[in-house]
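Tutorial sheet, problem 5. The four components below are modelled jointly, 410 residues in total.
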Amino acid sequence: MSGEPIRVLLADDQAMIRGGLAALLDLETDISVVCQLDSGAGLAEAVAEHGIDVAILDIEMPEVDGLAAAAALRETRPDCAVLIVTTFGRAGYLRRALEAGVRGFVVKDTPAEELAEAVRRVHAGASAFDPDLLAESLSAGQNPLTERERQVLRCALDGSPVRQIAKALFLSPGTVRNHLSAAIGKVQASTRAEAAVIARDRGWL
Amino acid sequence: MSGEPIRVLLADDQAMIRGGLAALLDLETDISVVCQLDSGAGLAEAVAEHGIDVAILDIEMPEVDGLAAAAALRETRPDCAVLIVTTFGRAGYLRRALEAGVRGFVVKDTPAEELAEAVRRVHAGASAFDPDLLAESLSAGQNPLTERERQVLRCALDGSPVRQIAKALFLSPGTVRNHLSAAIGKVQASTRAEAAVIARDRGWL
DNA sequence: ATCGGCCCATGACAGTTGTCACGGGGTCCG
DNA sequence: CGGACCCCGTGACAACTGTCATGGGCCGAT
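Model answer (structure tokens):
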């Protein structure tokens, strides 16, 4: 908390939110927002260029989402701490974040004052995870879906009939129905649509 | 822009966003955020108590959503300007907002600086509507769905089978299927799930 | 009072969906 | 090598879904 301020990068696709969070952080004397992005694309370059200490990333972003960007950043810049700030407190997101080496995970429901505190914590090498979500994530278990099942469910999200899904994935209709059936069973749903929303809400995509 | 600052109320269910927007607005010398809510409930009372000039409302909120709150406020406090600030730029939302007598509608994608400007505009009696969205709203046409059809589609959003929807709405399964069929035809979908997402994305709920 | 709209319901039909059993193909691991 | 797991596919069956025709009741507008 002495000497140079913490150099922060802020990535969120909603400009107004980005501006708000930046205003919030700039109130703190020991934190300085030196770079803003509207996507995860180009994160590593920006981190290198601006000498970023902490990268604050939203998850839902176009092109490259926050979790993918975090994973990529870990490869090239493991010394830069990552703090995920997201709307959706989904257990699967937290799990993926942990696997990506993220040091903090905060949902946008939490009080504004805690944001700066989380930044300080991850910068100091500590962690900053939403406790409720952490518990939920640990109890929720692994993502049981296979790659194909996830693809099929993603296509089913918008209500497409089997034939369209099959065409989109270059599969036989029968195969698609088999994958759907397997997925439905794994998430304990009774309909493809139900299975799709359940999987989405759990962050299993 | 002289004398007393504009007295603003801020309603958003995400505490961190609320704090960010408040920080943003407090940077302006002629604007003062004097009250914050996490829901549309109790809006009229808060407006009366704090002598609010401009109420900034999010749409997606628990209990009472921003559009319903705006409509209710119009009844009791027509002198208080309402500015909607939302994530989702759906044409149906803007239409409902206009019907509720809202004076401004801004999506969170727009640059942060424009928020304060929008507040000043609606306070001055002018309007502040996202131009792209306004055009889309005018060209999109009215919501063609009946009340029942909307209810049924809302239930269908999570993928429930007909029997569950019927039970939830105290209807015969056959009736539910009729309503679904009508709705599917109106939104030009081919599946209930598809119809549900289309209707949702248009703000027809 | 007649028309139109919305609501509710029933029955019947073709098409789709969910499930199962079964086959084949790969890979990775003990 | 056999086994486990994933992938792809087929065929068949019961259940569900989307559509249509048809009927009734309740409004509000013409």
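Marking note: The first strand of chain B starts at residue 6 and ends at 11. Full credit if you identified this.
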